[in-house]
Amino acid sequence: MTDEKRVVKVSKMLSRILRHEPERVGIELDEAGWVRVDVLLTALAAKGNRLTRAELDHVVATNNKRRFGYSADGLSIRANQGHTVAVDLGLAAAVPPPVLYHGTADRHLASIFHEGLRPMARQDVHLSADTETATRVGARHGRPVVLTVNAAAMTANGHEFRLSDNGVWLTDAVPPQYLSRRS
Q1: Distance from the first to the final alpha carbon of the chain
Q2: What is the crossing angle of helices 53-62 and 37-46, to 10°?
Q3: CA-CA distance, 67 to 90, in Å (whole number)?
Q4: Do 4-79 and 99-181 share a fold?
Q5: Are 124 and 170 contacting, i.e. CB atoms less than 8 angstroms apart?
Q6: pLDDT score recorded for residue 117
Q7: CA–CA separation, 87 and 124 (whole Å)
Q8: What does the DSSP assignment read for 145-171?
Q9: How confident is the model over 68-116, as pLDDT tens digits?
Q10: pLDDT at 1
Q11: Which residues of the chain register pLDDT less than 50?
Q12: Is 64 within 8 Å of 132 (Cβ atoms)?
């Protein structure tokens, strides 16, 4: 699959199906978010979205955010994080770096500093280990602002973090006292 536009289109379609709307193509994710590759490809084809295993492999391998992963046996696929459907990714608690980052738009700052970061429709709050990623995330929502998360203090106070397979730090919420605006 050399057409970059098609790669992006397929990646977005897979994100929607594997993170948010599996029923859109008539599949069910298991409790950990997995679906068999053959079931996914058959369901996509039935909805007019023909995709070969080689094309799927290419999208998984080249996605710059590493959004998808295969099971150890290569027979199943899932999104690595970002679900709005209930799944348990089975990620163990992990100790984060002392500081993490969250990208948002400036128009959200007042509510964030009042309520903290909440997962909204997703299962978890997503945090980055670097400011570049956080800036890119924030830019998707408007003029980007990067917030610093005092992950060391959160950990010391009993908050749990998990690290997804694609390097995104996940937590249930970030109370406002652990947030500051990065200058």
Answers
A1: 42
A2: 110
A3: 16
A4: no
A5: yes
A6: 97
A7: 11
A8: EEEEEEHHHHHHTT---EE-TTS-EEE
A9: 999 999 999 999 999 999 999 999 999 999 999 999 998 999 999 999 9
A10: 54
A11: none
A12: no
Contact assessment for residue 113 and residue 76, using Cβ atoms and an 8 Å cutoff: no
pLDDT at residue 142, as a whole number: 85
Nearest alpha-carbon partner for 65 in 106, 19, 121: 19
Output the pTM of the full model: 0.84
Of the candidate CATH numbers 3.20.170.30, 3.30.1330.30, 3.40.50.620, 3.40.120.10, the domain formed by 99-181 belongs to 3.20.170.30
**Domain layout of the chain by residue ranges:** 4-79, 99-181
**CATH code for 4-79?**
1.10.10.970
Structure confidence at residue 63 (pLDDT): 85
Residue-level pLDDT at 52 = 95
Neighbour order of strands in the sheet with 68-70: 35-36, 76-79, 68-70
Q: Which residues of 82-103 are buried (b: 16+ CB within 10 A; e: fewer)?
A: bbebebebeeeeeebeebbbbb
Cβ-based neighbour number of residue 67 at 10 Å:
23
